[in-house]
Amino acid sequence: MKPAVVDAASTLLAEMKDAASSLTYAALLTDDGFDVARLPGQTDGARFAGMASSMQALGDAVTHELKIGTSEYIIIASGRGHVVQLRVPGKELVLSALFDNDATVGHALATARSFAQKMADLLK
Amino acid sequence: MAEHVILFAGPMGAGKTTAIESLSEIEVVRTEANNSERHIVDKATTTVALDYGEILIGAQEKVRLYGIPGQQRFDFMWTILKKRAKGMVLLVNSDAPDPIGEMTFFLEEFRELYDRGGVVVGITRSDVMPGPALAEFSDALERTNPGLLIPVFTVDPREADQMQNVLLALIANIEMRAAFGMLATTGAS
User: Fold this and answer.
1) Looking at residue A114, which CATH number applies to its domain?
2) Are B170 and B153 in contact, with CB atoms under 8 Å apart?
3) Of A77, B24, B68, B130, which has the most beta carbons under 10 Å away?
4) Does residue B186 belong to any structural domain of this protein?
5) d(Cα B167, Cα B57) in Å, to the nearest integer?
6) Nearest to B31 among A46, A54, A92 (CB)
7) Which chain A residues are within 8 Å of B34, Cβ to Cβ?
8) Distance CA B122, CA A112 (A)
9) Do the chains contact at B73 and A47, CB–CB below 8 Å?
10) Contact by Cβ (8 Å): B91, B129
11) Cβ A84 vs Cβ A52: under 8 Å
């Protein structure tokens, strides 16, 4: 991964944390499961990057199977937070973000979408 | 209808996805991403979650074929997929840096599939680069896992006939060991 991309990804995640206090973890990763940047957290970033890329690919496989176009985002809701994940538009990168329950799912999704687009703009 | 669930395991580039494509009678469910490790294995895409296909053996036996991602960073998928399988086709590419080491590594990782069902080993890409001889793979198996009944073949994953022979050998192996009460749990489906 080019250092410029890693720097842009790290900057973006820091800005995302400043913008959303409910954000507890976030990572940018490649489509094939390599960690590009992540916020500090207790999670094993390398392992999480692999899991997030598998989930992204399974989402794509399901939308293909059901013939409903392409997967726009994936949400995992739990009692202690929700994971929102989506591809950076036009890039082979995925943004996966964990929000605590102070954020509604709608707010979390809007934040994640906005920062995925910012990442795409940064890489133009 | 009897059903088998068979896992295709082995390192990245061994031909697992290709083998399932060759065998499956349904459109294969694939989860490919562009490969950013082309310096390690030079192929455009790689499996990041699973492959899934199906084939009927005879009129009665449906075989569900699952392929794993070969890289160890996806070992959480190995844990998920190995729970549901009752046998394994272990593919190892002859041109890997250490094909015998890869074989023994994956056999150790997925050993429970031997205990529950059976394993066959398929050596691929031996036409591309002549790696260790077949006997060396068998000798290594006997040395590291003495007494296991694991057939070893050379195989081209692109050839459906060859893959069917490997699959039938595995199913015969599972059924034979089940019939003789050699499995850790009964009912190899």
Assistant:
1) 3.30.450.30
2) no
3) B68
4) no
5) 9
6) A54
7) 31-32, 92
8) 45
9) yes
10) no
11) no
In angstroms, the separation between the Cα of residue A58 and the nearest Cα of chain B is: 6
Joined together, the tokens standing for residue B29 give 């469910």
CATH number, domain containing residue B83: 3.40.50.300
pLDDT in tens, chain B (189 residues): 678 899 999 999 999 999 999 999 999 999 999 999 888 888 999 999 999 999 999 888 899 999 999 999 999 999 999 998 999 999 999 999 999 999 999 999 999 999 999 999 999 998 888 889 999 999 999 999 999 999 999 999 999 999 999 999 999 999 999 998 888 864 444
Q: Which residue has the tokens 């899991």?
A: A51
Q: Do B48 and A57 touch (CB under 8 A)?
A: yes
Q: What is the ipTM of this complex?
A: 0.86
Integer-rounded Cα radius of gyration of chain B: 15
Contact pairs from chain A to chain B, CB under 8 Å:
57
- Is B65 inside any structural domain? yes
Q: What gap in Å lies between CA B93 and CA B131, rounded to an integer?
A: 9
Residue B182 domain flag: no
Q: Total domain count for chain B?
A: 1
The nearest CA of chain B is from the CA of A46 a distance in Å of: 7
Residue B183 belongs to some domain of the structure? no
Closest approach of B33 to chain A, Cα-based (Å)? 5
How many residues are listed for chain B in this entry?
A: 189
A77 touching B, CB under 8 A?
no
**Domain encompassing residue B92:** 2-177
Q: From CA B135, how far away is CA B141, in angstroms rounded?
A: 10
Structural domain count of chain A: 1
pTM of the model: 0.91
